[in-house]
User: Fold this.
Amino acid sequence: MVRSLQAGYDLVYVYAGHSMTILQNFLSPYYNNRSDEYGGSLENRARLLREVLEDTCETVDGRAAVGCRIVADELLGAAGLSNNEIADVIGMLGELPDLWDFQVGDWENDSATSRFSPEGAQEEYVRGLKALTTKPVVGVGRFTSPDLMVRQVTSGVLDFIGAARPSIADPFLPRKIERGDLEDIRECIGCNICVTGDWTSSPIRCTQNPTMGEEFRRGWHPERIAVRGSDAAVLVVGSGPAGLEAARALGQRGYAVSLAEATRHLGGRVRHEAALPGLAAWIRVVDYRTQQLGRLDNVEVFRESHMTAEDILGTFQHVVVATGATWRRDGVGRWHAHPISVAPGADVLTPDDVMTGARPAGRSVVLYDDDRFYLGAVLAELLAREDYEVTLVTPTPSVSQWTANTMELVRVRQRIMEAGVRVVTDHAVTAVHEGHVVQECVFTHATAELPCDSTVLVTARLPNDVLCHDLAARGDEWAAAGLRSVTPIGDANAPSTIAAAVWSGHKVARELDDPDPTTALSWRREVTELAVEEA
Amino acid sequence: MVRSLQAGYDLVYVYAGHSMTILQNFLSPYYNNRSDEYGGSLENRARLLREVLEDTCETVDGRAAVGCRIVADELLGAAGLSNNEIADVIGMLGELPDLWDFQVGDWENDSATSRFSPEGAQEEYVRGLKALTTKPVVGVGRFTSPDLMVRQVTSGVLDFIGAARPSIADPFLPRKIERGDLEDIRECIGCNICVTGDWTSSPIRCTQNPTMGEEFRRGWHPERIAVRGSDAAVLVVGSGPAGLEAARALGQRGYAVSLAEATRHLGGRVRHEAALPGLAAWIRVVDYRTQQLGRLDNVEVFRESHMTAEDILGTFQHVVVATGATWRRDGVGRWHAHPISVAPGADVLTPDDVMTGARPAGRSVVLYDDDRFYLGAVLAELLAREDYEVTLVTPTPSVSQWTANTMELVRVRQRIMEAGVRVVTDHAVTAVHEGHVVQECVFTHATAELPCDSTVLVTARLPNDVLCHDLAARGDEWAAAGLRSVTPIGDANAPSTIAAAVWSGHKVARELDDPDPTTALSWRREVTELAVEEA
Assistant:
């Protein structure tokens, strides 16, 4: 705290939240089993927090504000720190800090995804606490809607709005509200891709904001972008998340952009996925970009426009191919490197089939999830709620194993169990027959038959790369046709997350006509120099 | 590679091993399904490796040696790259690099622990390859025994011995062999604690070598240590891994050390754990240190010497308390913060009971593992092999979840399944009754009765801190008695791994009589300065 002051911080925090600090642990009847003056009664359990707050305020001595972040409810039931006890703590210590900052539960609870928790979900725990102190209070709840923010302030729930994930999606959120540019807000979709960087020790990424984490490294400003480097005409093929972002950012640069979409609808995979249970907020990826495209006179959108190499040659100087990917029907995924045996008469569906309206022929369905992120469990939930008898089989110990990194693992399992999905972990599907699949234990390799009418294979995707290959095959015609570049982006280049697709679309737009051809491979980095310091 | 030469490296590697590189993936019939000149026949699959080796040798041009690390068998059965195919690859490319470096399977297979794989286990895959090239060959296999190393060289299996983990345990391994100081070798115990740093993004640690990772940070040389800072008499209480290392390192510094052990045997927890299935090599933690202590005239070992505060006051200036920890009998662990209900008549055992010879009263046993590292499954295996009917219940999705970080997770499950242990994952034991336990689903919180005669609770440990508290209570007598410090170390301070205990014992020895009282909290670190570089 002394160092924070030396570094010039305006606000110093005393932290008693997120189940992370000894101050909360002392407060909590769940964690604190002391029998001395720091345990037992709430006054005793709050003693350490009081002392630290008093010492902090004394040391800070007005040079910075002192905030106290505190859990408003531990969400541990009767055993934990309740909302009522926190009210009593605010009653006791309310005037000590300059600011109270409320949150709920541990990080997993506090930063729930939109799939499991609506915007502003912490209001019930925070309402009423403000009245117990004259000091301002701040709270969180994945706020992206200015209306809801205003309502929480005017109704006396909060004085300040806290918004970490919404600020990752749009660092200029407050400015846009201030200016009334509400339609320009790039709203957080609540997917927690940002959080996965923490759990995988990798750089932060944001589905909505491709510049996140690239501000210094690549010099990408969240709002500003260089003007176009030429008068080239650019075609973007495909309007999924990659194509939409490429067209938007190229349009922002001033290029003459044509966005060609084969179907009647913009959005690609996001349009389909946002229609699945719990994922409605994901449509913001499409909504924000179509809204922005509508204002760009230099971007023309062509729907129901399937593009061939023939259509392209002679018309455009640059082609960005964002044609997406297709889910495999052969079982290849993380477990199987080679196609599994599928009987010709077996009823097999892919996620693409289900998302475009197809349904299993019979009631009893095995869904084999070797993708390991969200989609398998989401489709299992969808089918179970439509009264299919669903068994989810996965080679991992958990369902939707990778959602451990979005902090959804427990909720995913709870939700599909509630929906009646049967779960078989630690098994791979090795063959699909009429009337059953063969499942193999990943430890013993013992196999068993699992009866079912239909099978849904959620395993891996292949890029839709026909157009790229067709154009490459006619490479000798490019120069004469004035074609200078063809760049596959997003899932059409490498099937991955929506965040990766948006990033890929942004990157191609940033780098078009870059005078330095090495830029595409380079980024600025911190160079560490070895120095020695005794701490 | 060009940069390696610029940096002055003597050896440049082309890597086709550990299932990590495209060179191995191209070689492998499992991963390579190309239909061009880089796929199909072995000659085609080896084409990329050949080209990269040729280009590397041409570029290096004698300025460094070029080694090629290659997988000697992918261990993927008929679908993978077999030992025979690798022999053919060496036949084709054998003279290209200056050195061949063999390993087996992926990292999990290559760096198996001593629990699952003996020293030198790769010999069967490597034997015969040397004859196919005139270039020297190196191989690995957790080699710690000079005899085995010599045999592999003299019998023509290898020219060089590769040893990563053994060099972590003893960086001076080659020097000690060269000098004939074989008894001074600090042999790797094969526990893979070193590997856990990689998987948890934390600093490397070694069970045998506490200086590992501290060479720069704390200035700890693996062999050298400062001479004593005073003529103080030091008592070390307890001869587990922490106490043994403290006594050894204090003895090396020249202090007059008394090591008091309450029982007849040195070794503490290691002596008991090394007697369990698969953990025999762990006794090296004790053997190395008792061997070293035997040479130190200034260290006196007292067995069957239980120490009280009364014994200590007036005799020693410094006391190091290494009295270990005791497994809890109340179910408190990672899942339960408070004791669970245990019926008075229920037959409940702790790991300490089992390791000191006690056995369940009935044949049907529930072992509840909420410790989540190795011990639960090891004890389940022990009891199952003694014909108990064992059900292992754990709140995690996997058995011995933390062994994911030692790369043992799959083998642990396979071994206990082979031993006949029944497994219930994702459930906590919430109560122990006569004739059954209550298990609760961690997702739904639904409870069910699980019948059993006896229960083994493997949950958490509490420090054996009576001596510390007794000495603290008599703090006003210290000065008169000449007592200057009492330091709990190892499990007596904070129950953890054996590696943490050894480190703790080493640290207290390094820091005794340190003239700078802040040293105990400090370490050198790299200070990063922000610089900007275009890559």
Chain A touches chain B through 32 residues (CB under 8 Å). The CA atoms of residues 384 and 420 of chain A lie 6 Å apart. The radius of gyration of chain A is 27 Å.
